[in-house]
Every structure is written in structure tokens, then in C-alpha cells.
Amino acid sequence: MKNLLIFGVGLIGGSIALESQKKRMFNQVIGVQRDGGTALSSFVSNGMLDKISKNLNDDIKQADLIVIATPVAQVQNILKKIYPSLSSRTIVIDVGSTKSNIMHFAKEELKEKFSQFVGSHPIAGSEKHGPTAAIVNLFKNKDIILTPEAETDSSKLEMTVRFWEDLGGIIKTMDPLEHDQIFSTVSHIPHLIAYNMVNLIAQKNNTDTLLEFAASGFKDFSRIAGSSPEVWKDISLANKTAILNDLDLFIKEINKTSNLIKNNDYVALEKYFDVASKIRKNWIKKN
Amino acid sequence: MKNLLIFGVGLIGGSIALESQKKRMFNQVIGVQRDGGTALSSFVSNGMLDKISKNLNDDIKQADLIVIATPVAQVQNILKKIYPSLSSRTIVIDVGSTKSNIMHFAKEELKEKFSQFVGSHPIAGSEKHGPTAAIVNLFKNKDIILTPEAETDSSKLEMTVRFWEDLGGIIKTMDPLEHDQIFSTVSHIPHLIAYNMVNLIAQKNNTDTLLEFAASGFKDFSRIAGSSPEVWKDISLANKTAILNDLDLFIKEINKTSNLIKNNDYVALEKYFDVASKIRKNWIKKN
After folding, report:
1. Which value does ipTM take for this structure?
2. Which of chain A's residues have a Cβ under 8 Å away from the Cβ of B205?
3. Which of B8, B51, B126, B224 has the fewest CB atoms inside 10 Å of its own CB, making it the most exposed?
């Protein structure tokens, strides 16, 4: 593939650019400047990008691969924008943390060209964000979830697999709805809960004292509360059903704990903690 | 001080022993074997302890400093046990994560000898536990909260300060109730929520798949869910009032988030995340 066009040169889009350049995977890596977004010119100077798109319709037409790596709320508009100029050889992928809504938008906006779209979610990230957060090796040995559908063009799917593998990823395929339920539980809920934890402290009248004594447990726990508010606002709304369901289940777990404490049920409380402790210990052995 | 007697040779008690030996702070470091606890003989062989207590009443009598580093539910019984043999020169300290209940027990059990007790809480720990988890430098530059009261003997308080400083700690003093409220929010609640998070996954019917896709966010977030179930069961019950109050407040934060998601209130949702993100980022700069 010759030309790579990236919408959303942030942590993920920028890391795709960096790694592609390092491995000389494309002749040209072009970034799309977002209105009001971080200025991209310095990322041309440092070689992350070959150029910033000047004539977007031309660059869409010439692209072999288009990566949409913006916050998920912007994906639909971008799909709408690329549709008229999209050549039949071009592959379009996204990198969003939600998949049902994105597959839905792709079907709606790309119409008869939907077969050219391969939904992707690299399980790689950081609480850091923006193009300055981009790094090489971000995708090395990381799972890349693809959500192909019956209509997906098989050779385009194959090339997408190869693209992600060239970046270092490990391909897994999944149904979009299953994807959203799984990542609600293991990723979206931990992020929301981390935000809740910091806000619990924020709304107290001794926030500074509390933060003074917050130690390593809080440090690790709250790391993901440093994540991009815009990205996580979009994800929360895009994966609404699964997230609201999991938040309800989470409150049930808290209530279970509260009741055991209220009733001084130390046997059941220790058992409840023990279940979690054993699962976490087994998990960490393998991860 | 010549003789150090340690009840509870685990992560904290063991690390106190190791560091004291390394810095030759005592002539003798003696560990008390707990019925059914980890056998301590190998920790005499490796020099962490000089001996295991054989005649406990004698060792109590001879001790210059007694450290009670067991899970907090056992502290009262140990105070009761040491009282009859406790010489007037001996300092007694604990290392518990809750302070109001321990100060109360100390008053009750040590009676006229209560002035010899200095409540201590080193803000140092790990999700690892037991004597094999003990390490040197555990207390280096870590806050050590002391909760002296009006009755506390001032020279014994001073010697306790010096003891913790010799171990590398930074002394802060606090009212026991204030301590318990602060550590409910910044330590106890994060631990409970981490246990809740893992149990949310445990009670789903696709636990293995979920754990397969859990990534670095979950890893950091759940680290403290590997903590000792016994220790945390004790802390939960010992700091009941503050913890139940904070769990209620936490549920309110979750409900706030749920409602913003339900109402598609993306402006308020992003703002809510932004408050947390900014606080976390400022905090991490200083920590």
C-alpha cells in the first residue's frame, strides 16, 4: 500500500504514523488537521507525517488505507465526508473503543462501499493523549480486535490483518455487540470508576489533605482518571446500554459490601475479598 | 533501645525487622509466632529475626519496644496479653490502618499504662503480604502517621518518632478520627472498589473471556485487589462508619455519571471527567 491517510493524529493515530514510518510501510503518511486540534506542522518537521492534507478530497481518492483515529463521536461525520471521494481500492478502518455504533455508522454512511470498511480496536493505550503522546511499539504484542461482517471484502480484511500485524499487533475477531459488552466491563467501567473515585475526593471539603495522603494504591487506581475527558465522554455515550447495565451491577457489588460491613459479617466479607484476590493473582501470573 | 519484640511478622512487621537489623538498631529482634501463621523459623535462619519468642511473658518484660503489626482485629487481644508483663520503660506501638478503634482498645486494655502506647500508621504497603513480602527501604520517605493523645508519655513519643525516622519515615501527627476519615477515602475505598471491580467480572458468565481482554488499565486498577483479604476484612469492620459513609458517596458519584449518560448530557459528562483528569494530573506532578 502506498498512501496512508490519518484522521485524528493523537496517541493512537500518531503511533500508527510513527510505526509505519519506522517500518517504511507506506510511501506517504498524510495527517488530516482537525479544526481547533493540536497543530500538526511540527509532526511533519519531525518526520512522523510526510505532509498535512491540503486537498482532502484528492488525498481521500489517492489513499490506499484511511485510518479514522478521532474520538468516536466524530467518526460518523468523517465517514460521511470520505464517502463521495472513496475509491474502490481503498480500505477504511477505525480504531474506536466501541464497535456496534461505528459498524452501524459505517453501514449508513458508506452504503455500497461498506465492504471496504474494517472495524478495528487496538487494545493499546495510555492515559496520555494527543500527538505528543505517540510512541513506537505501542501495538507490539497487543490484541487488535477486528469486527468484520458478512459484507466485508475478504481481500481488504486480509490486508487489514497484515497492516496491524506489521505494526506488531495480535489479531482477534469478534462480533461488535460482544466486543462492546466485554470492553464495557474490562475497560469502560474501570475508567468511569476511576473518574468517580477522583470526583469523590474532589467534592470533599478537605481535598488537598486527602490528596496529600493518597499513596501508591490510589496512584495506580487513579492513573486512568488522567485519560482524555473528550474520548471517554464519547465512549460513555457510544456504549450506553452496556455501560449503564454494568454501572448498575457495580452498584450492586458496592451494596453487597456495604451490607456485609453493616452486618459485621466478617466471614462472608473475607470470602468476598478472597474471590477477587485469587482471581487477580491468577490473572497477573498470566499477564 | 536493646530489645524489639514484633507481633505479626508480615509485610510491615517483617520489613521493620529487616530494616532494624540492617541498621543495627537493636541488640535483639524477636518475632512472635502466630498460631496457624506462617512458620517463622526460616526468618531466623536468614537473619531477619534473632529468635522466635519462647517465653512470651519474659520477652514482653525485656522488650524496649513492642510492635504490634498483626491484622487490626487481633490488636485488642495482644494488648490484653501484654498488659500484665509490660514494664514501665517499654514503648508499645501498632502499625494499623485504622486508629480510632486501636486507640480505644489501647486505653481499655493498657489502663494506667496507656501513656506507653503510641498509635502509628506507616503509609507504606504493597498488595503482597506475609513475611516473604518484607523488604528493606519499605518506609523510606513514606509518611508515618502518629496519633498521640494528651496522656501519651512525651519521651516515649519522642523515641517513637526517632524509631520511625531511623527506618526512613517522615512523621506526621493526626487526630485518630481525622485519620480514619482521610484513609477511608484515599485508601480503604479504593481497596473495596478494586475488590468490587474484580467481583463484577467474577459474577459474569464469561469471566475467562473478560480477563483475557483486560488490559493495562485493569491491571493497575485491580492491583490492590490482590491485597490480603484478612487484613482488609478487619479494616472494613474497624473503620465502619467512615467507610459506609464514603461508599454511599461513591454510589452517588456513580449515579451522577449514569444520569449524565442516560440524558446524553455530553457537556456535563466531559466536564465531570475533566475535573478528575485535572486533579489527577496535578497530583501526579507532585507525587
Report:
1. 0.85
2. none
3. B51
